[in-house]
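Entry 14. Ran structure prediction on the chain below.
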Amino acid sequence: MERAYFDHAATTPLDRRVLAAMIPVLEGGWGNPSGIYREAQLARGLLDEARDRIAGVLGCSPSEVVLTSGGTESDNLAIRGAALARRESGRHLITQATEHHAVLHTMEQLEREGFELTVLGVDAEGFVDQDTVASAVRADTTVVSIMAANNEIGTVQPIAEIARAVKERNRRTIVHTDAVQAAGAVDIRPDALGVDLMSVTAHKIYGPKGAGALYVRRRTPLEALQLGGGQEEERRAGTESVAQAVGLAKALELAESERGQRTRHASELRNRLWRELNERVHPIRLNGPADWSRRLANNLNVSFSGVEGESILLQLDLEGFAASSGSACSTGSTEPSHVLSAIGLDSDTAHSTVRLSLGQSNTEDQIQGIARTIEEITARLRALSPV
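Output, structure tokens:
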């Protein structure tokens, strides 16, 4: 059978409409946007138009959009840039245990440089309580970063409520959210969320890799990390990639305009897959929210006790199915997922976990196919297991 892709949380294929928008820019908009001659000004016009369109989706001013190379850079710039800009006011940072490593590792590096870090625990479904976040805020807390939607277990945090609680405790505290997984799935307008900084990327929403943005609310202090020229209003040096910006803009527009259809498609298939797996495989454990309305529509994270998740993935690949065990950024690590550990899973259960994340290309036939294949694989592996 044709290969079926079940790892859309890691990356997505490039939408043909996004590619069509980028090709003319690659061919004719190659000038340096910082120049004053005709070719440069053509590129500048295309770049400004892309920024305007990104701002239109986010409901913000174009001047509040900083173009980056993706989610990791946006997270680094947000957290480190804000922390350094406010270091004379305080050096206390707050995040949660299930954040992406782009956030956690940046926070931990700042801690090694003299900042104080509070990492909040989460409940068994991956939620952090807004009152818990607020109670951790102090007079010297400068940055709080809570991700909008978890990339491994699909937990959609109540960011608006969390941001409001933080601001009520200390209005000067800067609130950042990593919305990389949330874009195209939930409302990510910064004003609706009440955040000061927000990270997005293109390749999770059928756009190009290497294209991202950081929303920076007006008057939010931010120290540049990448130095050189004065691009992006001196917040991020380097010649802008016009085609990447156009690709991000188009991908964001499509993700927002088609959000209802995409989430319905993904949730119907996800729910069907969960029912099929429940009927075919025992025992099985769902990780993350049991309430589908509080979970990303395309996310299914399940553990198959007594079986190594990696063994399932390798055999799925041989049978024509691409899936993962969690964050692609942690592939190759022998340690159990920090997200699964944070929600209370023991090492054996965490290592028996598979993440299935659906997208536009998935079909009912593929759901039947992967459920049947997982049933066969787990039965075979359990029969071979000495446990």
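The radius of gyration is 21 Å. Will compare against last week's run tomorrow.
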